[in-house]
Specification:
By secondary structure, this protein is α+β, with helices and mostly antiparallel strands. The chain is globular, with a radius of gyration of 29 Å.
């Protein structure tokens, strides 16, 4: 038998020469003996085969289950103070938040609407009782002064994707009612209302398919909503499908399943709480980004709705420069495929505003011109009703060429509108009349109503806040003399007021005397930091704070490790601003294994499991659970802080530069072992990780791609007609299409044609029942006896949500990197349904892959030829 002393007695060069002969002998022994005696063979290649290791000391850090079951705020979605203010009741007395917590044992997610008393009198009383935060910031472990009360709970086992929770879009209607969208009893999303006093819940819609977005008037008599409607690729009674520009997934998916179908949306207006079929508003329309938001007048008489106009995109692009710019950047289909022969506009289409009478659906064009919304702003707030619904302020719309009321004086004098600027107008739906208010200087972000103050609004014009108020004669006047600070507070000789009108900073409107003074001194905020989970606090006038929630009392900062900002420079001189996370028992001078988690880093937000850019995109990132296993975590930002390319191919190359630069820096500082490094990529960073491990010599020992994109010919095929932006991205990434003059460039850049160059042990996770990316990579690696494993989650969404799926993904990745970076195995089942036999089978597969990796590593590295 082979033994470690034998190898230690030989010079390294002789040991390496013995590898091929020993591998042959090892294969013959595989079926007869344990892999344990073969450990020295892998040692020759730089890392031992994984062997059961006895635990030396108690682990420090959270388990995967503790990470999965972390209680999270999901509304406000972005954890921003500005949105938090909109969750305060109009009378200023109560605040709600929506939370989400997984239960691994039941495999269900629990969503709660929590209420807090934030009336000025209550906050003042809590302050008098004695704050525990006299130094300014409450202790992360201190309990709240006034724990929130549970208004409503919804439990769900059907959360397919983290980005589509079972309770969402809650909002106040008056100070006693909250309306929201939810999957009650695991059924389709419908609209509900709940009385905050009686706790009575009433269903408002009975849509046959899930409600995707909704609006209600003040009296709650009607609901305007949008749903996906059936759009099967195969027509009723047909025996064949004419594919045309139908997407690959719509053609090959189940024809009665809405999920793989090419999205077709329809707006409806329904009488609230009535089971009668809802009335359609306009025609059904195909996906072009997120469906737009409808706006219903407070009196319930009128509905304003932006409608996509893909057929007019190129004509409008010739007239309106911003439409031309957006078409070039986001509307690839119209630009490269004017015949619509192989693609459809799915990411961007200009849209015009329509007005509908709610009682009978009668339609009228507001302005025969596009708005200035980009794909990321399709659900912005750009309409504000006035006088109970008599008129509406519409912001961010262009004017028809030749219409009166343009931005420039010369144009106004000539009775023409400038096509270079979008505008703010006021519109009267009963008559169809409109009047110009102002021209915008940049693209509209949103408009904000003045809390409790009629005839005042703020337009976010690019980065500028512009305040408008109505004069006694009915005209609008811009308050250009008021100075606006960075927080949005206007300071004048009359004291402070929120830039949005009213008390924007604390979201309370109306009131007199003591309450008004209190509202000017208390601010409600989401408090979080890199190592502090998000909670709600009330900040007082003297700098003290009152903690209103403690959503995760089990969190102990001293046990969960520390994330710190980490900066480095790559070989091209670009600066990267990421984060480095170390365990609580970190030992200086020890070189640790490292896992790199891509997809972004925000230095101001709590880092729990994966990217903290947005709290719904974690998937298989285990984050702090890696620390428990003695593995450091590097959070990689989206792109370099300086000199970052914006094209797809340049971004792929820069990603590799950034990873290599980070490894060099961490190794030079004595923090990381260069031979024990892994990396994970999700979605858009999947393609970057795949190219990194295929085309560079970065010392990546193991990698994971989580439902990732990739620039291969197979991926180009299965994403056919899915999204025009996807086609553009793949061709940009490979420096051209896979035919004609750019064929050689595609061949050089397509990683599926160079799988023999991949040396990292690769784990691929694929979410959803349909055929997805990276199946070609997997098959080709298996064909070559390379270490690769693929997990398919048939019911998973792009960002996993079910507790069981998240446990399998996160714990699987922790196991994967313990095995490949530390040579360790988990001995006890921790995933519900897991057995000792299943765990043993996992490591039997990986032990076999470890031998394959030894052989692959002994081969010469690929040399990438220049074109």
């Amino acid at each position: 038998m082979l033994c470690k002393p034998f190898f230690k007695s030989l010079p390294l060069s002789q040991s390496i020469r013995l590898v091929p002969r020993l591998l042959l002998a090892a294969r013959r022994l595989l079926s007869m003996v344990s892999l344990a005696p073969l450990a020295p063979l892998a040692l020759v290649a730089g890392l031992p085969l994984a062997l059961p290791a006895a635990p030396a000391t108690a682990a420090v850090g959270p388990t995967v289950q503790q990470v999965v079951e972390f209680n999270r705020i999901i509304q406000p979605v972005l954890y921003d103070d500005e949105t938090l203010q909109t969750q305060i009741s109009p009378d200023g007395g109560q605040l709600f938040i929506v939370t989400r917590k997984a239960n691994v044992a039941t495999d269900r997610n629990r969503f709660e609407i929590l209420l807090m008393d934030v009336s000025p009198a209550r906050l003042a009383a809590l302050a008098r009782e004695g704050s525990r935060s006299q130094a300014g910031t409450p202790s992360a472990s201190a309990p709240p002064h006034a724990p929130p009360s549970l208004l409503l709970a919804v439990e769900s086992s059907r959360d397919r994707a983290d980005s589509d929770p079972s309770l969402r879009e809650a909002r106040w209607v008056g100070s006693r009612t909250i309306v929201f969208r939810a999957r009650m009893n695991d059924e389709a999303h419908q609209v509900y209302k709940v009385d905050v006093i009686t706790r009575e819940v009433k269903q408002l819609t009975y849509a046959p398919h899930s409600v995707l977005a909704f609006e209600v008037p003040d009296d709650l008599r009607r609901v305007v909503y949008v749903s996906q409607v059936p759009n099967p690729a195969r027509e009723a009674g047909a025996r064949a499908i004419i594919v045309g520009t139908k997407s690959f997934w719509s053609v090959h998916g189940q024809q009665d399943d809405l999920y793989p179908q090419d999205r077709l949306h329809q707006f409806f207006v329904a009488e609230a709480g009535v089971r009668m079929p809802a009335r359609p508003l306009g025609e059904a329309f195909p996906r072009a980004g997120y469906p737009p938001l409808a706006s219903i007048s407070p009196d319930g008489r009128w509905v304003l709705l932006p409608t996509d106009q893909p057929a007019r995109q190129m004509a409008w692009a010739k007239v309106y420069p911003q439409v031309a710019e957006l078409s070039k950047q986001y509307g690839a289909s119209a630009a490269v495929d004017p015949l619509g022969y192989f693609s459809r506009p799915t990411n961007y289409a200009p849209r015009k505003m329509m007005a509908y009478r709610a009682s009978d659906g009668q339609a009228r064009v507001v302005l025969d011109a596009p708005d200035d919304s980009a794909p990321g702003g399709r659900q912005r707030v750009d309409r504000l009703w006035q006088n109970g619904g008599t008129s509406v302020v519409i912001a961010g719309t262009y004017l028809p060429v030749g219409a009166a009321g343009g931005a420039k004086a010369a144009d106004q004098a000539a009775g023409k509108a400038s096509p270079e600027a979008s505008h703010i107008i006021e519109y009267w739906p009963a008559s169809g009349e409109w009047k110009h208010i102002a021209a915008l200087k940049a693209r509209l972000q949103k408009v904000e109503a003045a809390g409790g103050e009629e005839g005042r609004f703020t337009a976010i014009d690019g980065e500028q806040r512009r305040i408008f108020k109505r004069l006694p004669d009915g005209r609008w006047h811009e308050a250009v003399g008021d100075a606006v600070d960075g927080s949005g507070t206007v300071r004048t000789g009359e004291g402070e007021r929120a830039a949005g009108g009213g008390a924007k900073r604390h979201g309370m409107s109306g009131g007199k005397g003591e309450e008004k003074d209190a509202r000017q001194t208390w601010r409600l905020q989401v408090r979080q930091a890199l190592n502090q989970p998000a909670d709600i606090v009330a900040a007082g006038p003297s700098g003290g704070e009152i903690r209103l929630t403690q959503l995760n009392p089990q969190f102990v900062a001293e046990q969960w490790g520390t994330m710190k900002e980490y900066r480095w420079t790559d070989g091209q001189g670009r600066r990267w601003d990421g984060g480095l996370m170390v365990p609580a028992d970190f030992k200086p001078g020890v070189r640790y294994p490292l896992v790199i988690q891509s997809y972004g880093f925000d230095p101001k937000r709590f880092y729990r499991d994966g990217t903290n850019d947005y709290d719904g995109a974690t998937s298989g990132f285990a984050g702090r659970a890696f620390l428990r296993e003695g593995i450091l975590v590097l959070a990689l930002p989206w792109r370099a802080a300086t000199g970052a390319p914006r094209d797809e191919h340049g971004s792929i190359v820069a990603f590799a530069d950034g990873v290599s630069g980070a490894i060099d820096a961490l190794v030079a500082q004595g923090l990381v072992d260069r031979d024990r490094i892994g990396i994970l990529g999700w979605s858009a960073t999947g393609v970057r990780v795949q190219n990194l491990i295929t085309f560079t010599d970065a010392p990546i020992r193991a990698a994971t791609i989580l439902d990732g994109d990739v620039n291969t010919l197979y991926s180009l095929t299965i994403t056919y007609a899915f999204a025009d932006s996807t086609l553009k991205s793949k061709e940009e990434g490979n420096q051209g299409a896979p035919f004609g003059e750019t064929r050689d460039r595609w061949i050089r850049n397509d990683p599926s044609l160079h799988t023999d160059c991949i040396r990292a042990a690769l784990r691929i996770e694929s979410y959803g029942a349909e055929a997805k990316n990276n199946s070609d990579i997997y098959a080709l690696l298996r064909r070559q006896y390379r270490p690769v494993e693929m997990l398919k989650f048939p019911e998973g969404g792009h960002a996993l949500s079910r507790p069981s799926e998240r446990m399998i993904s996160l714990q699987g990745n922790v196991d994967w990197y313990r095995f490949w970076l530390k040579g360790e195995k988990r001995l006890a089942p921790v995933i519900p349904g897991e057995t000792v036999q299943g765990l043993q089978a996992q490591y039997a597969r990986w032990d076999q892959m470890a031998l394959m990796k030894v052989e692959a590593d002994a081969k010469p590295r690929c040399i990438r030829k220049a074109l």
